[in-house]
Amino acid sequence: MKLEGRRESSNVDDRRGKGGKKASLGIGGTIIVGLIIWFMGGNPLTFLTEQAVGSFSSTSNYTPTAEEEALASFSKKILAGTEDVWTEIFRQNGWGEYQKPRMVLFSGAVQSGCGSASSSTGPFYCSADQTVYIDLSFFKQMESQLDAGGDFAYAYVIAHEVGHHVQYLLGTLNEVHRRQQGLSKKESNQMEVRLELQADFYAGIWAYHDNKNFNSIEDGDIDEGLNAASQIGDDRLQMKSQGYVVPDAFNHGTSAQRSRWLKKGLSTGNVANGDTFSAAYSQL
Q1: Distance CA 49, CA 37 (A)
Q2: Considering its fold, how many domains does the chain have in total?
Q3: Which of 14, 59, 263, 273 has its CA 20 to 30 A from that of 209?
Q4: Where would I find the H helices in 99-150?
Q5: Would you say residue 105 lies in a domain?
Q6: 95: domain range?
Q7: Residue 102 maps to a domain
Q8: pLDDT tens, 101-151?
Q9: Would residue 5 count as lying in a domain?
C-alpha cells in the first residue's frame, strides 16, 4: 500500500511494554490455537480470558524492534484512513457524526472494557469501550503461520475490526446479540457468521474509498487481502486444526464467503450492498 505522507491517528493508546494480566497459554507455543480462537471466535464479548491468572507481569524492559515500530506507524495510518472514510460515509448517509474508535496497541496481555485478554486471543473489538485491541506480533504470525502476510492483509484485519465498530454505532451489533438470546448454538453461530461477513464487507468498503481518496492500493494488494480472507475461513482453519470440517460450528464464514464479501465491498464501494442478514443463509 502507498501510505507515504499519510497522517497517523491520534486515537491510539500505546500500551506496549506496560504489562498486563498474564495468561497461562502464551503466544510462543500456542499461536496457531490463538489465531484460530480469533478467526473463529469473533465476538469480543466472549474474549473474557478463562486462562488468566491473578498475577501481573512486568514488561518494563520491553524494547520494540524497528519492525514493530513500523507496524505501529502503519496501524495508526490505517486507523486514520478508516476515520476519514467512515466520517464521510456517515455524513453522506445521514447517520450522524461518526464516533471514532480508539485503538490500543499492547504486548502480551491487556485489560479491556470487555475483560482481560492475552495475545493468543488475537485482535478484537470491544463495544464496551469502543476500542480495537491489537498485539502487533499477530501480523508477523499471520505471515509465518497462515501464509497471509502483506500490508494490505494487515490493513484488512484492522478495517474488519473497525467494521464491528460501525456495526455497533448503527445498532447492528447489539441487535444481533439480542437476537442470539434464546437461539440454538447452530442458529447463534449462523447469526455470528452474518455479522462477521458484514464486517468483511465493511473492510472492503473502507479499501474502496481509501483508494479513491488517496490512490493507496498497489498491484498485488487486493490479492493479499483476498488471500488473507481465504486463509481464515472457518472451513480451512477447522481442516488445518482438526482434519475435518463441522459447518454447524462456523461463526466467521467459509473461505469462499469471506473472500466474496470482502471483494463485494472492494468492487462496489456501496454500503447499501452489505446486507448479510436478509438473504437465506445458504446464499451467503
Answers
A1: 11
A2: 1
A3: 14
A4: 137-146
A5: yes
A6: 12-283
A7: yes
A8: 999 999 999 999 999 998 888 899 999 999 999 999 999 989 998 899 999
A9: no
Phi-psi region of 61 (alpha: psi -120 to 50; beta: other; left: phi over 0): alpha
Residue type, 35: L
CA distance 235 to 119: 23
How far apart are alpha carbons 40 and 8 in whole angstroms? 30
Model pTM score: 0.87
DSSP-based three-state secondary structure for 111: strand
Give φ, ψ of 23 to 5 degrees: -110, 150
Closest CA to 104 of 75, 143, 74: 75
Count Cα atoms within 13 angstroms, Cβ side, for 123. 25
pLDDT, tens only, 38-58? 555 554 344 433 333 333 344
What is the pairing mode between strands 52-57 and 124-126?
A: unpaired
Q: Which three cell numbers stand for residue 51?
A: 486462562
Distance (Å, whole) CA 25 – CA 17: 18
Q: Which residue has the cell 442458529?
A: 187
Pairing of strands 115-118, 109-112: antiparallel
Whether residue 273 is contained in a domain is answered as yes
